[in-house]
């Protein structure tokens, strides 16, 4: 059962990473097309381009996080722990994974809380009328999946399923 959930989480993180990449390509395309449109037809621009790019930036930023936690490709700066025994490094990795999960949980809660507050005030974006809960909901969803991936990583390290050497080091 746990293996199934871990595979599902990894698959979801992978899909979200692909969506983040697609969002990045879309952002570039929208900006390039908008600049070309303004150059070729002065006074013309793509309606809502800035708001759409801002929304896609949220997708790119927050949908890439789960894959980083799932694949343990976030950066580790090891100064004092490089020569430490594997058991100490494992304990520290679990500890810092849990600290990271706590930070992600806080950010997720803040995103939802802010989105709900702004939604209640009736705010929308000026041109496309995007409701705040859409933007903050995307952020909260990405952070929620990142939280699950961080907790899964901490569990994997604690159980010895994930190597403490399996990370990108600086």
Automatic annotation (TrEMBL):
Keywords: Cell inner membrane, Cell membrane, Membrane, Transmembrane, Transmembrane helix, Transport. It is found in: Cell inner membrane. Its main location: membrane. It comes from the Bacteria. The chain crosses the membrane at residues 15-37, 49-69, 94-112, 133-158. GO terms for biological process: C4-dicarboxylate transport. InterPro entries: DctQ (IPR055348), TRAP_DctQ (IPR007387). The complex comprises the extracytoplasmic solute receptor protein and the two transmembrane proteins. PANTHER family: 2,3-DIKETO-L-GULONATE TRAP TRANSPORTER SMALL PERMEASE PROTEIN YIAM, TRAP TRANSPORTER SMALL PERMEASE PROTEIN. This is TRAP transporter small permease protein.
């Amino acid at each position: 059962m746990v293996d199934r959930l871990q595979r599902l989480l990894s698959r979801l993180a992978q899909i979200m990473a692909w969506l983040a990449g697609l969002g990045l390509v879309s952002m570039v395309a929208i900006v390039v097309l908008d600049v070309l449109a303004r150059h070729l037809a002065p006074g013309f621009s793509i309606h809502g381009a800035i708001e759409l790019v801002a929304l896609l930036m949220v997708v790119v930023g927050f949908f890439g996080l789960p894959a980083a936690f799932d694949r343990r490709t976030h950066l580790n700066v090891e100064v004092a722990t490089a020569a430490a025994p594997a058991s100490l490094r494992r304990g520290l990795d679990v500890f810092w994974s849990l600290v990271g999960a706590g930070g992600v949980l806080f950010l997720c809660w803040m995103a939802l809380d802010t989105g709900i507050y702004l939604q209640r005030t009736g705010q929308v974006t000026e041109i496309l009328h995007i409701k705040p809960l859409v933007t903050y909901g995307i952020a909260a969803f990405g952070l929620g999946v990142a939280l699950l991936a961080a907790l899964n990583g901490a569990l994997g390290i604690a159980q010895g399923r994930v190597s403490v050497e399996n990370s990108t080091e600086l």
